[in-house]
Amino acid sequence: MKNDYELLNETKVDFSKYENIELNDLEKKKMKNGLRGKIYIKKKYNRKIIAVASTVLIVGAMTINTTVVRATIGQLGNKLEQFLGIKNNKVYDDYKKVIGSSVKDKDITFTLNEFLIKKGTAIVNVKVDTREFKKTKVITIFPNIYIDGEKISKGGSTIYKYNDDGTYEMLHQIKLKDIDINKDIKVDIEYSGGEYKQNGKEKGIYGNWTFSINDNGERITQNTKEIDINKVIDLGNGYIYSIRSIAVSPIDIVLKYNTTLMDEKKIKNEEYKYRDISFTIMDTNKNVLILENGITSSGDMITGHIECSMFLDNEVQDKLLIVPYKGPDKKYESVEELIKNREYIFDEAIEIELE
Fold first, then answer.
1. Is 152 or 134 the better-scoring residue by pLDDT?
2. Structural contact between residues 225 and 253, judged by C-beta atoms closer than 8 angstroms
């Protein structure tokens, strides 16, 4: 049975519009060693298909995924909503901070555009100008996040966008330790070391590009509902999922569940049955509420825990549905057709009341 992402990867795409990022020897070594640790799944854009794709990175306790998007997509701008393709959810402005300050070191200028923090996640939108550096167009770099002096970041993912003037922008989704943000906090966003490619070789670069801002996560926390579910979905043939909980904020939904398909031995043997079934979020009229290409999942091969974070592209009312599905066996030309023709298993859907 083919899943959505295998079907999409058969789509013909002009590769000249996209750039592929290769792993260096250190990163490859980390991936091999990571079989003893955790597995992180990132559903994202890649060099074959910009609509939706699925990549598995096995890297231990920390993962940094990178996605590259060319500036030929003219509608992209500084707003994180435009980065993610969010069109209908208008509340992001209520929770993010627009900064606009710049820091320069090593002839490279970082400009912090936007910042948003919620429980377990920080979103950073930064612009980078390497034109004076002249050794490369892009450096691969990921920030550390400190709150009141304590480092709380645990890795995450990055989307790149290139601008026509030679600058580029990065949108980081950063996993955070579970700490109290329901108060006034001092946030430090620190870029200190990264890599760039020169004459085909990877080189390190070190500097100090740090931003300090004041924030408070109380409002978004108050508007987030966490609901224990503790229900089992048994689809037969070993496809058993224990749905633990769901958290609904104004900007995203976090679904937590367990499955025995997320098993270290099975992963080592390249048995990826856990990818056959996915979950989406709908309203009671069966309209999809989430951004399909903004899904990030992380899983633990020891415990079988999976945490799936989904950005909201539509407002959530008083009820929602957690719907399992499997992709069609037929090839479709567009993501919209593919989503429409999935095999949704509504008989096993779980209805959640939010009021």
1. 152
2. no
For the segment 95-122, what is each residue's pLDDT rounded down to a tens digit? 999 999 999 999 999 999 999 999 999 9
pLDDT at 58 over 60: no
Nearest to 246 by CA among 314, 322, 182: 322
CA Rg value for the chain: 20
Q: How confident is the model at residue 274 (pLDDT cuts 50, 70, 90)?
A: low
**What is the CA 47 to chain-centroid distance, rounded?**
17
Interatomic CA distance for residues 258 and 250, integer angstroms: 25
Distances (CA, A) of 282 to 44, 198, 266, 312, 344: 20, 47, 31, 11, 11
Which H helix or E strand runs over 56?
strand 53-58
The helix/strand/coil state of 16 is helix
Sheet containing strand 168-176, edge to edge, reads: 64-69, 153-162, 168-176, 121-129, 108-118, 97-105
Please tell me the least confidently modeled range out of 25-34, 169-178, 273-282. Answer: 25-34
Domains of the chain: 65-219 (2.60.40.1630), 221-353 (2.60.40)
State CA 133 to chain mean position distance. Answer: 29
**pTM, full prediction:** 0.72
* Cα–Cα distance measured from residue 284 to residue 318, given in angstroms and rounded to the nearest whole number: 9
Give me the phi and psi of 286, to 5 degrees please: 70, 30
Q: How far is CA 240 from the centre of its chain?
A: 25
SS3 39: strand
**If DSSP codes are grouped into helix, strand and coil, which group holds residue 28?**
helix
DSSP letter string, 222-269: HT-EEEEEEEEEE-STT-EEEEEEEEE-SSEEEEEEE-TTS-HHHHHT
